[in-house]
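Example complex used in Figure S2.
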Amino acid sequence: MIDTLHIYLPNPTHQEYSRIGSRLDHAQIQQDLNAQFPPSVLGQLGNLKVKANPSKVSVKGSLSKFHLGDNLQRLTRKGTEEALEHLSEKLSLPLVLSYISRIDIGATMVMQHQPQEYFAVLGEAPRLDRTTFNGPHGPTVYHRNNQRTFISYDKRAEAMKKKQTIVPVLRGQNLLRLELKLTQRVPRQLGRERIQAGDLFEEEIWVSLLKNWYKQYRSIRKTPSLRFKENLTMTNSKDLVHQLAGLGLQQIGGEQAIVDLLKAERDCGRLDRQQFHRMRSKIMELVSSSPLAIGTEEGRDLIDELDSKAKRVISSYR
Amino acid sequence: MTQHLDCYLRFRRQPDSASTRRDLVEEVGAYEPLLVPNQLGRVFLYVSQPVNIKARSERRGGLRITQQGKHVSSLYFPEPSRPELAIGDVQGLQDALLFCFSDRMQVLDILVSKGCRNTLDGLFSLLVDDQLQDEIEFLKAQAQPYVPLKTGGSEQLPLLV
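Predicted assembly (479 residues):
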């Protein structure tokens, strides 16, 4: 589950600081001519970036890749403990005492369809901004604010682009990666005053990380593409307006397309925040409460599959 | 075709045995951690409730298996719509175990994927989506009836396969 981790160890001893350069690959010295402090040491340890100066040592990178070789495999609670021990041993630093400034929790799920089909059903989430980015390895859906980001992307395409080896079990499968990145105020987001790397393998913290991931996933509205019930009977003018509005939505390309359109209007300054929120709420209300529009069966199947597999991720942990 | 499974073991409840006991009747791949015989050379395990396991409910399995008085694995049932399928692992090993119950829980098939403990979720998805069916059939076709090393005492009756 744990992928990227940013940790820092404040006030290393002189001994710890002085021998760190010898433990890194491609170690470089960075000297700030204006500062009176000793220089910083920059270097890499496998896939991890390490920076050390007399006031702190910081380590950034994927713990899963460092310990298991890739982040397709699940780094369990015990595995995280072993990975940190492994890292501490390599750097000769007590990293269990280091503080966490960023943590990514991710799960790779084997799906029945191409990941792109699932992106279409991932709608808006409260207090998160949804954007789609068409990168070199296909589209990626971001739900983000200034504290966290929830990312959904095609893991197989990414691995192939980066020429990573895919473990035999997952080779040739449709791999959907759902990742939650806690980028700011990590302790507060986990309901703690401070959080150290050694706390990660405490059951309470581990469960809270999993629950955060699932909560974020659940907060995303799932919007199946729309179709209309057969044998519609319009008994009043309100039904007629609902039906016409639904047809309009379908014509534009569904809920997400119109929300994206409104976002563009907002970003251009033609709509203010309040107008945008009111219009978005109206669209959501129209989609969810309309007695005329129902999701297609395929769309429902995709959502059911996503929901059940996401639930499976947190159903048991080790 | 990528091979995911390495070993297959079938345990079945025998007449007049304890309701929780399942005896090994067929196997292929010789998975040693689950082939611990008793003094008479018979291999069996007990499937029971995970009592005495001090773990939070999220971490406690739905069932557990023990062999020769030792805990082997907890059984987790991740998919509510497929209550006959479970996952587990053996402490200290990197192998993934898939459990398939059938015949009203009387038969327990165990499929082993060596070194796949960290991709157990993916493996389970393949099982649920019936993508391992051909491999399972292939292993079942290769399975040999298990013959106890020694016979004697009250356990000399042939095993019901």
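The mean pLDDT of chain A is 85. Chain A has two domains: 2-219, 226-294.
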